[in-house]
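The instructor's notes for this session suggest beginning with a concrete chain rather than abstract definitions. Hand out the sequence below and ask the class to guess, before any prediction is shown, which regions might be ordered.
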Amino acid sequence: NLNTGSYTIYATSVLTNGRSSSESGDAVKLSDSEYATVSVSLKQPFLSATPSGTIVAKGDDIYIRGTAEGDPSKLQYYIFGPNKFETGTISVEDDGTYEKKLTIGSDWASNQYYVVIEHPMYNGDIDVKDSGLVGGKRTLYIENVDEDTQQSSFIVEGQGRLQSSNAANALTTMIDNANIDDVYTKLTFTVDEPRITITNPGDQATGTTFTISGTTNLAVGDQIIVEVMSSSFTAVDK
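After discussion, reveal the predicted structure:
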């Protein structure tokens, strides 16, 4: 229940209240006691998130890493894309860092995806609720909000659902509501088909050394097999 800002904590040898000793038999002036002070700055809990890459090929993994201050027990993540919605919790380490691994399968369309990470803040509760699939629809909503003045729900699965940036914007608008204390951060990444290109090394003389190079959107650490074979259709020397 304290506002953010700078505070000074006093530890005194006797009870003090700023009045002179003659005004009270118990309380004395601060200068009449032994005391020590320490300054403390209270700040808003901070939330950050960074993807391991902005472009990820199907079949690879992408990691979302960041820091969540304020000692939250968990975070909630939401992913919105074309015909894609995914949500779940992320555990936070003792030092405030977290990591979420996402495996990009063949069911992910080649397109841009929007990620929102939600921090529960002071009450420790994720204020955005998930209705689950009810009557063919799945809704994200917040409670105790006047729908006439503030968006309080939207559909993420089923008829009338919002997708991609529209869904991400609707979610952040809900979290911005003054009636809840949660905060969020957001990011994007793009899913692409696996791709490898080779730079043409040109004609090379027998006995020389040359480099085969190129580019790929596969993840760092993936192995690429390079095969060199004859393109001649006639008998050639070994």
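Then share the key points. The chain has a mean pLDDT of 88. The CA atoms of residues 81 and 163 lie 6 Å apart.
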